[in-house]
Amino acid sequence: MAGFPEPLEVLPCEPELADTEVFCRHYGYATHDSANTLLVKGKRGDVVNYVACVVLATTRLEVNRVVRKRMNARRLSFADAGETRELTGMEIGGVTAPGLPDGIPIWVDDKVMAREFLLLGGGNRHCKLKAPPSLLLALPGVEVVAGMASYRDRQP
User: Fold this and answer.
1) Sign of CA dihedral 114, 117, 121, 122
2) Which domains are present in the chain?
3) In which region does residue 148 sit, left (phi positive, over 0), alpha (psi from -120 to 50) or beta (all else)?
């Protein structure tokens, strides 16, 4: 992708293989090198805010313990497919931090930054991006958040 200071590789995939675990199994990648971008919707009264959270596929987003507090929201939910498409122009399964429109804050779990490379959504279900984690730091509105996700099982 033009305009990014780090090298990245576009990996084509079949749309039905775009879900993280299926993609990794089919194409021979480790799931702990995959990062998912989750669009979270926070509400407090009539105010609605969104944030994109980037977490490793082997972790679970700490929605109530970390994200809700940081958003100062009373209620949180994940944006549904329609909201995601309207806000980002991307389909669930292909949402990627490098393609988000300006104005959506991007919070990256600190464990993401420790990987040698990442597999990210490609903005659609037809490809993934393979890039160093430092690519994320070049994006506007990025913050690295310690402890935003916890490992589901044992740490890789």
Assistant:
1) positive
2) 9-148 (3.90.960.10)
3) alpha
Q: Strand 9-12 vs strand 142-145: parallel, antiparallel, or unpaired?
A: unpaired
| Contact call for residues 118 and 34 (beta carbons, < 8 A) | yes
Paired residues of 145 in beta bridges: 109
User: Which residues are within 8 A (CB) of 2 and not within 5 positions of it... i.e. 6 or more apart?
Assistant: none
Of the candidates 127, 36, 128, the one whose C-alpha atom is nearest the C-alpha of residue 78 is 36
Distance of alpha carbon 135 from alpha carbon 32, whole angstroms:
17
User: What is the per-residue pLDDT across 86-126, written as a single tens digit (0 to 9) for each?
Assistant: 999 998 889 999 989 999 999 999 999 999 999 999 999 99
The pTM score is 0.92
